[in-house]
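Run log, item B.
One chain of 217 residues. Sequence copied directly from the ordering sheet:
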Amino acid sequence: MNTAEPRNRLARTISREDLANLPVRRYQGKVIVVATPEELEDAQTDLRAENIVGLDTETRPAFRKGESHLPCLVQVATARAVYLFQLRRTEVFPVLAELLSDPRGVKAGISLKDDLRALKQVFAFSEQHMLDLGTVARSGGLGQTGVRNLAGILLGFRIPKGTKTSNWAVRELSPAQIAYAATDAWACRELYLRFESLGLLRAKPPAPTGSNAAQSG
């Protein structure tokens, strides 16, 4: 039986007022800030077994004109946990490169093209099977494509902005930073599953390879 909701019943946008009235949700599951060889091995095992991950990055904010920074953190959500990979730890690079280059599993996120371009300045990889949720939203007729608006429209909850502009380059992430980072990656995975349930992924599946992959949806 097809239980997908008709597309014409979907709200296309959500106002600031309506978004502010939604209940706040944060990821409540297991979060691992990968810091030991054992945690890295466990993360790699989980990622290899997963078919769909939510993907996001965080970068130290720039407050001066012309200033920019490379990503400091990569967040990856599976069905079992969210893994936070601090990019000051070079030992995580091979695990992340393997994930991003793996053609078998979908990596779902928002504005992936920009994230991938920045990550390639940190370590080498050739992306495969990426799915930009913003592109899926646009192709489905939604007028907003940010993760917070999409969570409000499709998941019925509000993700707090919290520590977005905090210093992500610190050696020890704060509990608030960990919760914020984990929630964004988890929300991307939940949005993928929601789009799938609505039948919005069938018309345009993610591209399997390379330069067009980050723009697919």
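Observations after the first pass:
- The mean pLDDT is 87.
- Strands lie at 30-33, 52-59, 71-77, 81-86, 106-109, 130-132.
Flagged for discussion on Thursday.
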